[in-house]
Amino acid sequence: MTEPRAPAWPQLLERTTALAGSFLESLPERPVGARGTVDELRATLGGPLPAAPADPVTVIEELARNADPGIIGMPGPRYFGFVIGGALPAALGADWLTSAWDQNAHSYATGPAASVAEEVAGEWLVELFGLPSGTSFGLATGCQMAHFTCLAAARHALLARSGWDVERRGLFGAPEIEVLVGAEGHATLHTALQYLGLGADRVTVAGTDGQGRMDLGSLRQVLGDGDASLLVCLQAGNVNTGAFDPLGPIIEEVRRRRPNAWVHVDGAFGLWAAVSPELRHLLDGAGAADSWATDGHKWLNVPYDAGYAFVADASAHHAALAPPRAAYIQYGTRERDEFEWVPEYSRRARGFATYAALRSLGRDGVREMVERCCRIARQMADRLAAEAGVEVLNEVVLNQVLVRFTAEGHDPDALTRDVIRRVQEDGTCWLGGTTWHGTAAMRISVSNWSTTAADADRSVEAILRSFQAGRVG
Ligand SMILES: *Cc1c(COP(=O)(O)O)cnc(C)c1O
After folding, report:
1. b or e along 173-183 (b: 16 or more beta carbons within 10 Å of the residue's beta carbon)?
2. Distance from the CA of 109 to the center of ligand 1, in angstroms?
3. Which of 166, 200, 360, 468 is an S-S bond match for 159, by CB 3.0 to 4.6 Å?
4. pLDDT given for residue 1 in this prediction
């Protein structure tokens, strides 16, 4: 038997810092997309499980070298795919410390500082979003699990009102909960419904308009009346267009006609409009909902993973999520035990990174970052729309732009997909595609703290170059 040797921390961490630093410094100029193929990555990273140990510095150096061709410039300034965001410097530093500290952030007893940092960060977020006082929160892995958290609270509250204890008795024999979603609700809402036994497809669907907003007329038709339990899922920020459901009028209508309704808002990135006096009107009425889910790893630019669940009725939140008590666990009295608010037991102390992000930006910095992204999205949309054959398909209300390309002698769908492929190969920036109301479209999402107006110009030039090549080719 060999004894563990005292590790050479300085060598390991300094080498790691150098490798991470050169990656981060390469971001502004490095090709944004991946360069290695799956076969190449499997060949360099794979092989049989080694029998013998290896020196940690060697492991890290080999990992960095072999992973590099498959590492995407995702935290960089010209990554416009999906809705992503990078890592703010302070948040990245806090995330490194989180790994070094390696606290089990399930309770105050196992990590007092983790508990308090998460508590402070959660309270700051409630304040930043202007949510009702007394709103409870949980820091989950992402918006999908934030949905799960919120909808578990909804399931608890709606069934408790019918005299059914779902946590103890489960769903077999329980009164039904009707679920109403918009036709363009995000896939992760349906996943949360699937996990909660409410059924991903067992939903009433309200129609949406040309921007993907829930249509009030369609909602009125499908809403119905009466005391039966209803869960309504609304959207603040359509993943393609950035459009917001008309939250105020919808919630008013729901409250008037369905007294036993719970209203949940998917604000994965759209909830951040609350930080800006220019954008806040998009969320008018959202404060009257029962729960809200959003992400930290998107627009707050916290490293993965960070999702936030907020519930107006803290007792429903706690009743739904807190695990049965165990004799070997030490519970807080005045202290906050994080695991009572999320669907996790042992967990990463992810509150530190969120705390550091909010502390480094402050209220003004968050507002500036969100407004800058929206301004850059607008700038890219305007420059693209000024070109013949380039059409912006959406009203650019936030940070999302949808673009379509047309040219004589080309099928517009095929041409649009070809332009996207060429942009990805070009490597100046990265963006993806979607099918929007039956037609192919390019998606631009501006969510990174480090993106500048110059990055936007360079990216528009790369897009137009790819369009020109696609038109000729
Ligand atoms: C990204 C996104 C989600 C899912 O968030 P994850 O953090 O990936 O789980 C849900 N809804 C919307 C509108 C999104 O953009």
Report:
1. ebeebbbbbbe
2. 32
3. 166
4. 64
| Tokens 């996990």 -> residue | 195
Q: Which long-range contacts (CB under 8 A, 24 or more apart) does 215-224 make?
A: 216/246, 216/249, 216/250, 216/253, 219/180, 219/250, 219/253, 220/253, 222/180, 223/180, 223/253, 223/254, 223/257, 223/258, 224/178, 224/257, 224/258
User: What pLDDT is attached to residue 3?
Assistant: 86
Is 143 touching ligand 1 by the criterion CB < 6 Å?
yes
Buried/exposed code over 49-67 (b: 16+ C-beta within 10 A; e: otherwise)? eeeeeeeebeebeeebebe
- Looking at the CA of residue 267, tell me the nearest atom of ligand 1: 13
Q: Could you tell me if the CB of 308 is within 6 A of ligand 1?
A: no
Residue with tokens 């035990």: 337
Q: Which residues of the chain have pLDDT under 50?
A: none
Any ligand 1 atom below 6 A from CB of 144: yes
Query: How many Cβ atoms sit within 10 Å of the Cβ of residue 100?
Result: 9
CB atoms within 10 A of CB 196: 21
Q: Which atom of ligand 1 is nearest to the CA of 235?
A: 13
CA distance 471 to 405: 9
- CA–CA distance, 450 with 73 (Å, rounded to integer): 12
Q: What is the DSSP letter of 68?
A: G
Asked if residue 313 has its Cβ within 6 Å of ligand 1, the reply is no
267 in contact with ligand 1, CB cutoff 6 A: no
- pLDDT for 6: 82
Among 314, 304, 289, 334, smallest CA distance to 122 is for 314
